[in-house]
Amino acid sequence: MTVFEGRFTDASTLRIAVVIARFNDLVTGKLLSGCLDCLGRHGIDTAPSSTQLDLAWVPGSFEIPLVAQNLARSGRYDVLITLGAVIRGDTPHFDVVVNEVSKGVAAVARDTGVPVIFGVLTTDNLQQALERAGIKSNLGWSYGLQALEMGSLLKALA
Ligand code: INI
Known about the structure:
Blueprint: E1 16-21, H1 25-41, E2 53-58, H2 64-73, E3 79-87, H3 93-112, E4 116-123, H4 126-131, H5 139-157
Parallel strand pairs: 1-2, 1-3, 3-4
Helix pairs in contact: 1-5, 2-3
């Protein structure tokens, strides 16, 4: 029997891209801080000169899938992390953005075979988003961990 599972100790060999939305950057910036803290403390080079970690900023979460697809197809990355914050307002725009980004991110992973971590918060209000981006806990940290696990797992499967 072969048991496949990701490890958290493969940092030196992983190449990672983070796609991050500027919309609600009070929240997404905190997610990014948590994510980079996690990656750095597991051995990923997070310095601006890093050759194993790249960042791509997009205007809003709606734009995440296209850029993630582009990066995944480049063959340069073992795993992608997407970071966004979609906060419910008084219009149906929330549902449109949430549907597009969630389906889009899943499609990128399936179509390219590159794992894509879904780090897009969907909340009813700013308070809930901030609680998940550092006030209570920082889900950015978890997304970093999940990226290490999935990047490592896909390498093991290969
Ligand atoms: N983008 C977000 O990332 N979060 C939101 O809450 C949001 N709302 O609510 O409008 C949002 N809209 C912008 C959208 O992602 C696109 O950038 C825009 O529609 C241009 O295509």
